[in-house]
## 1
Amino acid sequence: MNNAIIIGQYVPGNSLVHRLDPRMKITIIFLFVIFVFFANNVVSYSILTAFAIITVFITKISLRFILKGLTPVWFLIIFTFILHLIVTKEGTVLVELLGFKVYSGALIQGFAISLRFFLLILITSLLTLTTTPIEITDAIEDMLHPLKKIKFPVHELALMMSISLRFIPTLLQETDKISKAQASRGVDFRTGPIKERIKAIVPLLVPLFVSAFKRAEELAMAMEARGYQGGEGRSKLRQLKIKKIDIFVLVFFLLVIAGLFITRNYS
Amino acid sequence: MDITFKDVTYIYQANSPFAHKALENLSFHIPSGSFVAVIGHTGSGKSTLIQHLNGLITPTEGTVQIGDYQINSDKKPENLKELRSRVGVVFQYPEHQLFDETVAKDIAFGPKNFGVSESEIQRRIKEIVPAVGLDEALLGRSPFDLSGGQMRRVAIAGVLAVKPEILVLDEPTAGLDPRGQREIMDMFSNLHKEQGLTTVLVTHSMEDAVKYADHVIIMNKGTKYMEGTPEEVFTQREALNKVQLDVPEMIQFINAFEERFGKTIPFKRQTVQALAKEIQQALKGAGSDE
């Protein structure tokens, strides 16, 4: 189960994208997410799309695998597209379907917004696909460091994040195990009326909560036994360092953005 | 019910970077009524194998035949629920599946799902609870108040209450104290004999396999490595060592004895007492020769 969802999953590899400093990756993705909204014509959209596709290509993760993994999101993208077709009333009328007038402007806008949406999701899912959860939390802790001055609990937040990320696969495994055990005892999770299926969740949720609480307690105990006292004076095994390649990639990305702004005013 | 695997291959997360072949071209036949031990190292495909036995997963290639139910890559039997009522699975650490308010309700959960009548369920609970070594006074308690060993017994009772014809056990005694292990294994062995069950036991313990099984399948890296009676399989020490498995203590002892005294004693799953007698005779014989 859950084979179809890849959001949050890490695919090991040794590509340029994998080796990039995670802070750099987060920064670039953050900027990309902002600048996607600046694209406004065919050329500028093409530049962003090309950038995203090339990045996917560099990671050596098959595009087909990623697209399949985004299945749950496809629904949203298509929904957005259809919504735009119905609501927008600009340009000339192209066809009339079941009493609905489909305008040329609606088609263009619907396509643009869906593409924007798709690019956003594609590029952000690349972050978790190519970066280990540990790297992500390290990067976030480092980037939020300035907030410490205003007594923001940066270390605690990072720790909470890394623990919850760490336990996602464990909990999924546990869910799979318990649902199989209950299915063997005659629970049917997949068919039957909705009411019955909701009732079937109880034998799954109760053991899941019990074991999650137990795990949390054991983890807290194990951390305390090893002398964990919080972030004060704690050093790091993996130091994050900006390398030449990181600078190079950032410069390249800024060039792409510059290209976007130059082509933006065409047409 | 007979169990037949024919060229079964199973791949986890096929068509993704995580694709992983867990079983490869696995074929075997388990006749109805036998007690089979499936042995292998961690990751040898044992757990994947047993999930095929009640249709929790379907083979990527090949066919699994359980009695009249056939499961292959493109069709699951429509009466999957019926199959599951006839194949009971005790998973590893089965106490993790407990959830209901009381022990009695949790035991009744399985049979209720399979449509057994309330009076029949009560009758079965009365019969099974003492059989698994539980006190009837516990029936009204919450399963989460019990000790680990008691929880294990409740979970096992929950599977047995369905009255399966095939019983699949995935390391049912892992994590129990030695006495609890012996009690539970003896209980399964008795059930097997009394009710004519077909039992599939996944285990790491060679001793359990020798003691209870009449047929042994050794798994290695998703394929069948060896198969046969315990006598045939466990006497092949070198082949077993190759896949990091040891021969049972008794055979180790017999081997050491043969080396030291130059006498052969055939291994035929005798009890320790019987073996002691044979040794006594062999050595006495030697004594009278000199």
## 2
Amino acid sequence: MKKSILTLAVLAGMATAAFAQLKDEKDVTITMDLQPILQLNMSTPSQLDFVFDDINKYYAGITKYAATVLKVSSTVNWDLYAIGISNGNVGAGYWDQQIKYGTGGSGGATNKLPLSLVELRQGQPNNNATAATGAFKDYSAVFPPVASPSGSNSLYVDPANAGTPPTSAMKYIAGHSGTTATGADGVAGGSYLTAGGLTSNYYYSIDYRILPGLPAVFPMAYDATGVTAKDLVTANAAGSYAQPGVYTMNVQYLLLEDQ
Amino acid sequence: MKKVKKILVIFSVLLFNISKAQQFCDKVTLLLSSSPNVDFTFDTFGKYLGGITENGVSQLKVTVDNSLTNNPDCRWNLVIYIDNSSNPVTPSDEWELLTPHSSSGTTPKINQLQIRVRNRCNTSTTGSGFFNANVLPGQPIVLISNTGITIPAGSCVTNVNGPGNYIKNYDEFTFDIDYRIAPGLSMRSGIYQLRLKYLLTEAL
């Protein structure tokens, strides 16, 4: 009996082996390399001149509307912020003085003009900053009137002049500090090319204003949080005012992966 | 005892015959006459948004022979299986992530791979256009199916599955494969991989 079962097993095995289904196989490996791309396009002049040669310009300031247009394309979540920088030839956090006119004025004249005296206004609010904790999450507020100084639009400046990104208490143009969630502190990957319209989160027109006031103390200069005034009188001493001359500084726009 | 032996012999003969009945063809051969590796590199926005199409990068050549047995029931199937499973943590519907470049974004799904199978007679059941690889690992994409009916070589119609070869019937036994990927801008940056297994079998 045992022998018969063994014979049957061998026969079955032979049959199966001899007549297995014919098949052939070839493999193709597909590799996809998605490289991260962050691209910031600025389709406007890189040089802006503010010439204060009329008393009304001192009083009312000079505003340049849509002087900078920023267009973002990114394959990763991203943040965008602006920071004021200079060479620091007067001091960290101050405009560079290229030349002073005449003797530079009498007592009280100072060449220490804070970088944050520049005001920005972004056309499209920051819609991805619910995690922001500060008084002002972005630069979308209208420019404050001369009679009511505010830090709502004062440019972010790293107090240490080390280029450190703003914290959650400071201003971003889009996205914000931290990586809690897309929408809370970062903008999802995308492009102005496909998001469309002038109100997309990938397209920002930036207005600039410089308001010296009279005397020229720059009342809209504030600290990085926009809470503490940094006008020339508050930052220096009563009677301070801006020394006439030519000053320069940079506004740098940084697009970076959500951080 | 004698009766048991008799039953065993009958059973073995039956089994032998059943097995023998399953062989209709003498030989099936699948030749991949192109590189086994296809690389897609997305390094510009144009490529991300417009996609990349790789035309004819895989070419399959089929030979199915029944010249010895001359069995009229010799037919064949051709299918694709997609495999992403060399990393066990990869979800079944996603590409296998080899190296991340970023922490944000979503992992691409297998069905973002588009495939087009071409030959002059359009014999593939998938049609002449691109289709999304909307399958999970272990599920086949059928190019030539087993309908139980032999469609002989030379018919130049969909699903030719009779014996033949790419030398005599090039337009029915050669398959040019195109691939297309359009990831968009929401994918997580990184290097991903999929393996496509082209399987030619005798139709039973």
